[in-house]
Structure formats: C-alpha cells, structure tokens
Design goal:
CATH architecture: Beta Barrel
CATH class: Mainly Beta
Structural class: mainly beta
Strand order of the largest sheet: 1-4-5-7-8-9-10-11
CATH topology: Lipocalin
C-alpha cells in the first residue's frame, strides 16, 4: 500500500518523535527532541484533500544536558515564556510516487512563520494489539534557524561558528486512525 487509508489520524506522541539536529563547533551533531506535542493528520482520497497540523510545547526540548536545555528555552533561542508553542500547518501534499511525498506548510517558531517543505515516506499501515489502525511516516527537512529569529551564536577563535545556522529536523510519526472518511 503506497497511500494511507483515508481518515483522520491523531499523532501518537508516545510512539512518535520530533528531533532537531545542530552542528556544534562546526563538526559534532547535537540532538534534541521535543517531548510534548500533538497533532492531526487528515488523509483524503487525494493528496489535495489531505492536511497535517501539529502543535509543539517548546519548553519540552530535551538534549540530555540541563544547562543547554535551559539556554535553548531562553530568549537567546526559543524564548518559551513568550512563545510556549511552535506549530506547523500544511498547505499542500505532493505525491512523488512509491510512497514518497513532499509536505508543504507553514512552520511557526519563536513567533515567526515561514514556509517549509518536508520530504516524507509513508511506511505502511499496522494494527496495534488493541485493534487500532496506525499509519506510519518518516520525514525530514532542514531549516535556517536565523530566518526564525534564532540568531544567538559565538564566533570560534579559529573561524566558524559555535552552533550551525542550519538545523536538520527528523520526524517519526505514528498516527492512530480516529475516524474514517465517509466516502472511504
């Protein structure tokens, strides 16, 4: 099956992940994950009838280093007191064939909204032990953090930057079918 069953899916945050990857000292990859998020995936009969919306609790960022996490929550980066949520709302889905898609939409981060494109694959449908139908997706994109006002950095003595300007975003998503479309 190269397309999910039409219907409305709730994103299962306990079996999904939103990870951010940045380069530190121009070389090492540092990973962080948001632990609290929710969303809905509507799969229509065609990609044009489909949509995705996600809300992320920005204070839930976790890099496994308390000092770094607190810095990321500060006004230097996510400014979670002023911007407690980040969000994504799709504007279109392009079917590239063979279970590969491009999800286009608007990402709002630190109060700034910019269009992005997420390459993703549909990995199939599965039924969990409780009889729930699940759609499985993997995706990734890159964003320029400075476009969202996340400009804090330090110049290194030998040249280069402490934190990369580009961030890679990796997504693993399980959507639980909550309702089936009437014409499905």
């Amino acid at each position: 099956m190269s397309t999910p069953q039409p219907g409305t899916y709730q994103i299962d945050p306990t079996h999904s992940s939103i990870e951010i990857i940045a380069r530190h000292l121009m070389t090492t990859k540092v990973r962080g994950a948001f632990g609290e998020f929710s969303g809905e995936i509507i799969v229509g009969e065609t990609p044009d009838d489909s949509s995705v919306s996600v809300e992320i609790q920005t204070a839930s960022i976790n890099t496994n280093t308390e000092d770094r996490d607190n810095h990321l929550r500060s006004p230097d980066f996510l400014h979670v007191e002023e911007h407690p949520t980040a969000g994504f709302q799709s504007t279109g889905v392009e079917d590239k064939g063979n279970g590969e898609y491009v999800l286009r939409g608007d990402l709002t981060l630190a109060g700034v909204t910019k269009p992005i494109a997420i390459d993703f694959t549909f990995a199939g449908m599965a039924t969990d032990p409780w009889g729930n139908a699940r759609a499985l997706f993997s995706g990734s994109t890159e964003i320029e953090r400075e476009e969202f006002g996340l400009t804090w950095n330090q110049i290194l003595e030998g040249g280069g930057l402490l934190v990369s300007k580009k961030l890679k975003v990796e997504l693993e998503v399980q959507g639980v079918l909550s309702s089936v479309e009437a014409n499905a």
